[in-house]
Amino acid sequence: MPEPSGSLDHIFTPIEIGGLTLPHRIVMGSMHLGLEGAEDAGPRLAAFYRDRALGGAGLIVTGGWAVSADGAADASYGVLDADAAKRALAEVAGATAGTEGRIALQLFHAGRYALADSPGEVVAPSAIASRVSRVEPRALGEDEVWDVVAEFAAGARLARELGFAAVEVMGSEGYLVDQFLSPVTNRRNDSWGGDAEGRMRFGIEVATAVREAVGEVFPVLFRMTGAELMPESRPWEEVEAFAQALVGAGVDALNVGVGWHEAPVPTVQGAVPSGAFVPWAEGLKAAIGGGKTAGTEITGTAATSAAMAAVPVIAGNRVNRLRDAEAILAAGGVDLVSMSRPFLADPRIVEKGRGGGAVNVCISCDQACIDRSLVGGHVSCLVNPRSGYEVDFPVPPPVRSQFPTTVVGNCERTWDRGGYAVIGGGPAGLEAARVLATLGGEVHLYEAREELGGQFRWARLVPGKEDYGATISYFESELRRLGVHVHLGRELGEDDADVIADCVGVVLASGVHPRAVDIPGADLPHVVDYATAFEAGLGEARSVAIVGGGGIGVDLAHLLTHGPSAADFYERHQLSPPVELYSRIEGVSLHSKGLSNGARVTVMRRSGRIGSGIGITTRWVWLEALRRAGVEMRTGLSYRQITPDGIEIGLEDGTVEAIAADAVVIAAGQERRDELRPLLERLEIPHRVVGGAKNPAELNAVRAFGEGLRAAYALAGAQA
User: Fold this and answer.
1) Which end of the chain is more exposed for a tag (fewer CB within 10 A), N or C?
2) Which contacts (CB < 8 Å, 24+ apart) does range 248-251 have?
3) In a 3-state reduction of DSSP, which class is residue 641?
4) Which residues, other chains included, contact 574 with Cβ-Cβ below 8 Å and sequence gap of 6+?
5) Catalytic residue among 77, 175, 468, 639
């Protein structure tokens, strides 16, 4: 999406939702944090939301709270009729006190998405299991459906009593409201199904009951699905009709989501172009009589009703920068933009939009957030591991003045006793240096290469991972702001004892190097390790064999085969946006500027699955893209030898196969670089070893950033 010209004026224009005045047009969307069912949910959630309110969030929507035990997706959900939940929510409702922020409680029912270990019974419109839980639900009886409607109303009433500013009904992503709406999951023949009108009835009755429960002047938002992205799902006309009916039932705002959790189309991963699903929200804004129709003719009552046109519509899904939100709002098709994970990555994203400052951009990796939320885990953020752990890692005011910014190319010691040294400028080292400086320490960071970032320098080249480069830029800016002394091109060794002897603490984050393999022919000139492949390229190689099918091998295969452009996204997934506004997203391309030369690629792994270790919500996206690009993926084999013409592999049936390759890349694991550990132990300097230097097995950036955070707090003695 192109940069908006000028300021963020459209974002910072106040708006009203049901009489509630908001200071700007960014909504912090709902995120289940995996804390809602915990004993200490109240203080933890209140600290999380308050951080975001202090950082400029306007309207905050909580994670979903189940309206009954049957509505909880798993044991990590809070259930509204429990006394513990009421006590926790009272703290949450007060989290925004003294700020411009306002907080809305989301009312939730998982339906057939509830897992087998959820606290209640798994129920749904029809007895059809989902690919999410694989549990066959019990079909609700006709009178029981009314009980669920009443539970939503009771939840809304409780929200108002506890002091929340609004409620939002969770009616998207394939949860219970969607299950009633869709012919995919509603096979009923009673008054709650049978035809489009019957399938819409549950959602409309919920909206009506919630409105009656809270009165006319309390804001009610409804999160609805603009496109299920499921085979044989609802036609667009039914989606429009449901939106119009919700407005007629008294809903004050429509928050438009897309895609069910089991849909075969990615919606939030890095491979999805920024703003790709905004047209569905724009289409619904047009359907209720507002917004720009962009050539789509909307007729009938919806086009003329001033009351409907006044109902704000919120767009979202894969919008991770304020500049993109500004462009969406400037186009005039929607009223607000929902950003969820960006508030995990940077609680102050809105404040920084007002006053400047580097933003820690959400890289849409899903690894610490959505992947965890789907299995009842504690949600956090890869690039901001403090998210969700605010109580454990308090940020006190700096105890000393910040130091002048310096970036130096040698190892000269420039501090008196009392400083910290961080050795290694990859994810773990960057986070450790940032946190130590935030806690008031003087920090010197030593990086052997001429650029910070570690393996993020390579990841940013991969189609769909370009935002990893934004992480490097953020840390470069933050380290400058905090006065960290950055020494590039400086690798410390045993002879540098004098450099670190006076430190009060050292973080060893020196990372990993590629593991060598014991395969005959591995020393041939056309054989390189993955680091060399990323950094120097593969020349004119037209066929490439990759030894190793983990995350690095998959990334390299993507880089070599290119990703599709943003404009191809709709065609590839057979999507027809209801409002044709391609021009806004044509500036976003998933094409890499790196190594791709259209090479024929084979990815191999001795055993196990290709891409194992990649997150559950992204692995299928990357593998689908590789298959589409013609990448051959092989497993269940042994490596016999590398030849000048390629590589010979042995198969499980005893046969031998030759795979032709102009280049062979070794991506078969990593080994730690911890050569300085003995020196630190000998000098008896307090230290922590983190990231790949600690353990290269199953190394991932979530672990690296998290260990950097914990090491800094441990050395500074600041952890609660």
Assistant:
1) C
2) 248/308, 249/204, 249/207, 249/208, 249/211, 250/207, 250/208, 250/211, 250/216, 250/220, 251/207, 251/211, 251/220, 251/221, 251/222, 251/311
3) strand
4) none
5) 175
Task: Tell me the mean pLDDT in the region 272-290.
Answer: 93
Burial of 206 (0-12, 13-18, 19+ CB in 10 A): buried
DSSP track, 670-690: EEE--TTHHHHHHHT--EEE-
Beta-bridge partners for 642: 647
Whose tokens are 């001429």? That residue is 450
Q: Which amino acid, one-letter code, is at 610?
A: I
What global pTM score does this model have? 0.92
Q: How far apart are the first and last CA of the chain?
A: 42
Nearest to 322 by CA among 85, 88, 27, 40: 27
- Give backbone dihedrals phi and psi of 28, rounded to 5 degrees, phi first: -80, 105
Cα–Cα distances in Å, from 466 out to 110, 469, 685? 34, 6, 38
- What is the residue extent of each domain of the chain? 15-373, 406-492+679-716, 527-670
Torsion sign (Cα): 282, 287, 290, 292:
positive
Calpha distance 138→583 (Å, rounded): 46
From the DSSP assignment, how many helices (H) and strands (E) are in the chain? 23, 28
State whether residue 26 is helix, strand or coil: strand
Question: b or e along 396-425 (b: 16 or more beta carbons within 10 Å of the residue's beta carbon)?
Answer: eeeeeeebeeeeeeebebebeeebbbbbbb
Contact 705, 522 (CB under 8 A): no
Give yes or no: 175 in active site.
Answer: yes
Topology, domain 527-670: FAD/NAD(P)-binding domain (3.50.50)
What single letter denotes the amino acid at residue 478? Answer: E
Q: Which CATH architecture has domain 406-492+679-716?
A: 3-Layer(aba) Sandwich (3.40)
- The length of the chain is 720
pLDDT digits (tens, 9 = 90+) for 222-266: 999 999 999 999 999 999 999 999 999 999 999 999 999 999 999
Q: CB of 321 within 8 A of CB of 604?
A: no
513 bridge partner residues:
671
**Cα 1 to Cα 587: distance, rounded to the nearest angstrom:** 5
Rounded Cα–Cα distance for residues 714 and 209 (Å)? 51
Q: Which pair of tokens denotes residue 354?
A: 């007002």
- Region 100-109: mean pLDDT is 98
Q: Is residue 10 a contact partner of residue 595, using CB atoms and an 8 Å limit?
A: no
Name the DSSP class of 98.
T
Residue by residue, DSSP assigns 107-174 as EE--GGG--TTSSS--EESSS---TTT--PPEEPPHHHHHHHHHHHHHHHHHHHHHT-SEEEEEE-TT
Query: Which tokens go with 79?
Result: 């259930």
How far from the centroid of its chain's Cα atoms is residue 554's Cα? 20
Q: Is 381 helix (H, G, I), strand (E, B) or coil?
A: coil
Question: pLDDT tens digits for 562-574?
Answer: 755 565 777 778 8
Q: How confident is the model at residue 583 (pLDDT cuts 50, 70, 90)?
A: very low
In this structure, are strands 443-447 and 670-672 parallel, antiparallel, or unpaired?
unpaired
Amino acid at 462: V
Structure tokens belonging to residue 605: 């792994």
User: Which CATH architecture does the domain made up of 15-373 adopt?
Assistant: Alpha-Beta Barrel (3.20)
Beta strands 336-339 and 313-315: pairing type?
parallel
